């Protein structure tokens, strides 16, 4: 019996690392796609995979591909709650301490497909820590799916949709009063290829990364200072 073919399509370094070190060693023939230009219907037809897995792909997958192959994406909420963009940030800013990673079949509607599996995910640590943690969980989910080939089941419950955060929303809100709230804001935006939390004052931008909340109630963080490129339409960062 010939081995089944599988594809993982991802653009994030933590998922690529997990593929190379763990997933590629699973039974079957494995292929990695890391660029949008390489995800073509012609290539998919040539490989004819049993599944295509999309951990942190962040691009619209053509309907022609989702119709041809069984495509599985991963979302860091207990869907149908939290469909939409920036799930980790939207959860943390709402005060959540943990969530679930949902593996679901991709359909024409975003994050609305039937569910294969759900696994718990802690929201402790920096955003990048959470993404690295989630990549390991996703690897386990992928192994479970290729082993058991579960039939996905329709989502149940009230639909709540999150809006994808914009770069301008990385500004630290002045309304934050508690040190824990400020810490959460800094850590939820601290990941590679993600806009860091920042303030702007006097023509300079101050970007914060690697925050640590000390037992004394003090936050220590790295700060990158650069010249402010241009003033935005709304002045989010007036400080008294």
Tell me what the structure shows.
By secondary structure, the chain is of the alpha/beta class. It has two domains: 5-162, 3-Layer(aba) Sandwich (Rossmann fold); 167-227, Methionyl-tRNA Fmet Formyltransferase, Chain A, domain 2, CATH 3.10.25. Helix content is 25%, strand content 28%. It has helices at 13-21, 41-47, 63-68, 87-93, 127-148, 179-188; strands at residues 5-9, 29-33, 51-54, 70-75, 81-84, 98-105, 115-122, 160-162, 197-201, 204-213, 219-227. The chain has a six-stranded mixed β-sheet with strand order 2-1-3-4-6-7. Helix 1 links the parallel strand 1 and strand 2 (29-33). Helix 1 packs across helix 5 and helix 4 (87-93) packs antiparallel against helix 6.
Mean pLDDT: 93
**SSE string, helices as H and strands as E:** EHEHEHEEHEEHEHEEE
The CATH architecture assignment of the largest domain turns out to be: 3-Layer(aba) Sandwich
State the secondary-structure class. Answer: alpha/beta
The number of helices is: 6
- The main sheet orders its strands as 2-1-3-4-6-7
* Integer count of domains: 2
Instruction: Measure the end-to-end span.
Output: 71 Å
The radius of gyration is 20 Å
Percent in helix? 25-40%
CATH class of the largest domain: Alpha Beta
> Which residues sit in consecutive blocks of at least 5 with pLDDT less than 50?
232-240
Task: Give the strand content.
Answer: 25-35%
Number of E strands: 11
Biggest sheet layout: 6 strands, mixed
CATH-assigned homologous superfamily of the largest domain: Formyl transferase, N-terminal domain
At CATH level 3, the topology of the largest domain is: Rossmann fold
């Amino acid at each position: 019996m010939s081995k089944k073919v599988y594809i993982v399509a991802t653009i994030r370094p933590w998922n690529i690392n997990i593929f190379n070190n763990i997933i590629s060693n699973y039974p079957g023939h494995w292929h990695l796609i890391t660029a949008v230009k390489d995800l073509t219907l012609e290539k998919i037809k040539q490989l004819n995979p049993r599944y295509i897995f999309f951990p942190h792909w962040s691009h619209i997958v053509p309907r022609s591909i989702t119709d041809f192959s069984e495509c599985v994406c991963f979302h860091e909420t207990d869907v149908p709650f939290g469909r939409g963009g920036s799930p980790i940030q939207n959860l943390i800013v709402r005060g959540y301490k943990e969530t679930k990673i949902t593996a679901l079949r991709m359909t024409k509607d975003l994050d609305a497909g039937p569910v294969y599996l759900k696994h718990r995910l802690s929201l402790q640590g920096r955003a990048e820590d959470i993404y690295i943690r989630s990549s390991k969980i996703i690897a386990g989910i992928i192994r479970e799916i290729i082993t058991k080939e579960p039939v996905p089941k329709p989502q149940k419950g009230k639909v709540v949709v999150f809006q994808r955060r914009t770069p301008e929303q990385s500004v630290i809100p002045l309304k934050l009063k508690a040190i824990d709230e400020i810490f959460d804001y800094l850590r939820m935006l601290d990941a590679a290829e993600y806009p860091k939390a920042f303030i702007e004052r006097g023509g300079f931008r101050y970007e914060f990364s690697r925050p640590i909340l000390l037992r004394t109630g003090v936050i220590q963080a790295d700060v990158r200072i650069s010249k402010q490129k241009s003033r935005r339409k709304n002045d989010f960062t007036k400080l008294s």
